[in-house]
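DM from R.C. (forwarded with permission)

"hey, sorry to bug you on a friday — could you get me a structure for this? deadline for the figure draft is monday and I only need the backbone to look sensible"
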Amino acid sequence: MSRNKGRFFKPFMLMLAILTGVAVMPGNSNGKTVATVQVENKNGIVTAGNGTYALSYDLSSGRGSIAWNGVTVMENFHSAYKLAGQEATVRSTDPATRTAEWTKPETSIYGRDEVKLTIKTVADTGAVMALNVYLLPDKAYFLADMSVTDPTAAPIEMLEPFEAASLDLPGGSDKRVFTTPYSNNFDFGVAPVHDFGNSQNGADRFEGEQLTWQKFNGISHWVTALFDETSKRGIVAGAATAKKWKSAQRLGEAQSENGPLSAFALYNWGGSQSGAVVESDKFFVGFYDDYQSGLEEYGKVYDTGEPHLKWNGSVPMGYNTYYSHYNYATAEAMYPMVDYMAKYLKPLGYEYFNLDGGFQPEKGLPSEEGMKAFADYVHSKGLKVGGYQTPFTIYDAWLDLPIPGTPYTHRDICLKDANGNLIRTYLGTYAMDVTHPGAQVALRNAIQQYVDWGFDYLKLDFIDMGMYEGQHYDPSVNGMQAYRIGMGIIRDTVLAAGRPIYLNESIAPLLPAAFAHGRRSACDTSIGVDGYSGIERQAFNTAASWWTNGTLYEFNDPDMIMPENFTQGFWYKYTQNEGKQLATTVAMGGGHWLIGDNLPFLSEERMDVLENKDLLAIVKMGKAAKPVQMPNVYHKGERPPSVLYLQGGKGDVYVGLTNWSTSEDTRLTVKMADLGLNPHAQYTLTEVYSGRTLGKFLGEFVYPLPPKGTAIVKISNGGSGKGDNEPVNLALGKPVNVSSSWSADYDGNKMTDGLLNTRWSAADGHTSGEWAEIDFGQPERLNRVVIKEHKGSYLQIANYALQYWDGSRYVDLTKGFTVGDNKIINFKTVTTSKIRLFMTSNYIIPSIEEIEAYNVEGNGGPVIVQDSSNSGYSWYSDIRAKVQRMQVFTLKNADLPKLDVYIYESYRNTVPADAYYFDIVTLDEQDNPKEKIFSASLPAYNIPGSDSAYSIYPRLTNLDTSKKYGLILKSPSSVMTPTTDNNYGFAYSDGDPYPDGYEKLSLDGGVTWLTENGGRRDLIFTLYSNE
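My reply, with the result:
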């Protein structure tokens, strides 16, 4: 039986459709030919299409197929649903009566002239399964949903509009699948169709469930693509809405290389629903000559069905407390960081100072007052303040606490299982049941607090827990619906604030996407997976989710930018190249640039990344770069995409280039046509990090990168095309004398041979007092030295000094702790015939690939002007509680860009409860503290276990050289231990190594100060000046 209900057609077209079985769209008035949707029922075979795709359905069997440009891509699909608690599914192929009808809705949000085709399967029981397909002219996609009408109102737990035995692409020599994760606890992935590889794929995680690296189960959550990397053609299919259910796709591995998938299904799942009619969400199926364009259109179509939360402000740029301080982020530690950011980064566009988990409000104030006081302080500096919430999480300590304004406790609002037990999450906490009235009050109050405190940004973490299935207070609600209730409360509370508040999702499902401005693209950058570093993991997830930026969300969040990653301590901190790899990932990632490093301790070359105006201009665009090619990343272990690009203003294109190899050079070839540029036009290329103009290029360019190297190239019209001359490496080919060598293959001259695949290594067991001297053979003017340390599993050099020969002795230019694979040391120009790197101490035998020396016009940097570290010294660890120590010093120049203080930790079985603070103060006439002019803090785990020259960058200027100053070492909230164990330590000398000052001791938290050893005791420290 076939019925056509196209009652909105013109009379003639209606009669034609009835007579021929073809639904013809009215032509437009200007006479141009337009694509039409055609539907026909001929002898029980229903066909529908728009010229790009065609659906064919056999009403006698309940099966259908889909063709793309005349070639069948999906064969023998059927529809199905599953009753709760039943193993078997009810299928459209079961014995039933089937009918087809099509109508033209009066309006459609997806476009004009939409046609709705409905295929009904009526079982003998009276249950009706309806498959609805929505077709549009001039679109490469169709939409679909389904419903079940059952007189028994039996609960349904799965709806599957399309299940097929195969899915294939016409032609293709490199067919792959693109899969998306349930939440960013998991990962995007790409794999060959015949070898899905492995993954940690999963969905809701409960207590005790461990992530395991195992064969990929073929489940893509939310959306997937089958594509050919060679031709770029692809099929994109996924959830067009996520309002009623969770949504997924089931993929079956091909039986042969480039063969068809052995299974394919689109389905809704998650809990159950019952009623007279149970409906699915909408689904999207599209066919594209460029699958990347298909993913982008998919994002736009989803955004049409449920628009994302718009943001009219600028891209969030600023700082976040988490990675730099974790639980040591006290208000006392963060107030100085606010000052530092306001003074040095605010002029560059940095705006947000965001508190994360672990923040502790000001001591002595009630928590609520402390939060508001901190927000007020941030605002007083002309900045915005961000906060942190885990809105759907309930902690053990909360269970029996009452919920103000309700008769409930937090135990009452926990989600329960079928047996009434509280459900514990993968964090060991409890999940909130947002359908409970008490939970809704608690949630609204929690968000309203941040509104009342004046916060401008709110990070929502672990919100995947709001989507758990369980026995909800409202039994008619499933996990998706509960999640939407909770997120709706959060969104509506924020929107009612009367001022812009940015909402950002952290650990969160990809969909639904209408409740926040931004979402994290991946898991924490600090967490790697199966041989991928955390940086690589962030890079491939960010690259794979470019299409969500501006569609599902206003901005993607590629996590924080950390040039060094202090919190990992010596062993795991990033090298310079690794930090820059992350910078490329984040800057090209789509609209978040939050610093996660300890700002006052970042060396100049690492700080340069954060202050690079051309790089920040990319960030401020809020665009996400897409990969030129999508490797078989994650599932099959290939590296992340090496080439990404995004469109800038005025026709500019920015290209991110990264060599993910840790040992091999590479030369990346980039074709202009792949970037959407005219291959026959000339373009001017400029590298963003260095600012160097590379020249004019036609058709393509080749960019060499060392291991772990990265660059961002700006491609522009116009410009002279004249490339900048690179500075000459004055050390290249010069002889090198060393203290020792591992062997002839690792001799000193390897450091100046210009090759990164050769290196010098010290002799076995030589971990202290090693040195390398470069002899220029004649006096040379120098103001920059670059050291490229070899990093195996870890950094190797601990304490070092860079020295120059003044004709009679070596003079220290700079000192420090840790070098790295691209340590750039700028300094005031000196004339010398030799330089020496003195490696005072090393954790592993030192090994260096290259040392380079330059004279760069206009360059300069800080040099040592006062130093108490050149004679022997001792060490002691009593900095805790009320015990403080202060070094009195004077200044020879009016600036203090950098200082080194020799510190360590004495942890044995616990770590101090507070951070290690370093205050610079002015002094009164009795050399007691008068005014604090700088403060910084290092949390535990950041500090070496033996005395080391830890560099601090106060960047102070316009100081009074006639005054005395003090450097105070303290940890005021640490416990007063009975011994020197588990404390912060310092180096000192009783030999009066610094005659212009002396050390003082306070035992009462800085109220009074004592002079020790007759004023002959000094802390070991070094002062620098740019003057």
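R.C.: lifesaver. Confidence is low (pLDDT under 50) at residues 1-33.
me: no worries. The first helix runs from residue 11 to 20.
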